Amino acid sequence: MDAETLAFTPAVTIAEQIRTKQLSPVEYLQTLLQRIEKLDPQVNAFVHLDAGPAMAAAKRAEAALMQGENIGRLHGIPVTIKDLAITKSMPTQHGS
Q1: Whole-angstrom Cα distance, residue 76 to residue 74?
Q2: Contact between 28 and 6 (Cβ < 8 Å)
């Protein structure tokens, strides 16, 4: 699946592809990070992008999947956190 199609595929579909090992959480995140890098200068959607920890989480998600661990419905799906929420190790600027 190409990057444009992945970007507009519903999360539940992506999650099913991850659960059935048709899509790697690491490859999915890499695709999303490349898209963010390409488009964010124009849309300015991210105040802070924590790519390193996100990639570490994707690798843990993939390892759990490959080891046959019991995983949740949205396992391996990255999320964004609104700047209004206080988060550990990330700035909180309340949208300013």
Answers
A1: 6
A2: yes
What would you measure as the largest C-alpha separation in the chain, in angstroms?
43
The closest alpha carbon to 51, from 41, 37, 64, 65, belongs to: 37
Residues 6+ apart with CB under 8 A from 60: none
Which has more confidence, 77 or 80? 77
The position carrying tokens 């959480």 is 25
In Å, what is the CA distance from 12 to each residue of 6, 61, 72?
Answer: 12, 16, 12
Q: Are 10 and 77 in contact (CB under 8 A)?
A: no
Task: Note the pTM of the prediction, 2 decimals.
Answer: 0.87
Per the CB < 8 A criterion, the answer to whether 57 and 33 are in contact is no
Write out pLDDT tens, residues 14-70: 999 999 999 999 999 999 999 999 999 999 988 888 999 999 999 999 999 999 999
Contact assessment for residue 34 and residue 44, using Cβ atoms and an 8 Å cutoff: no
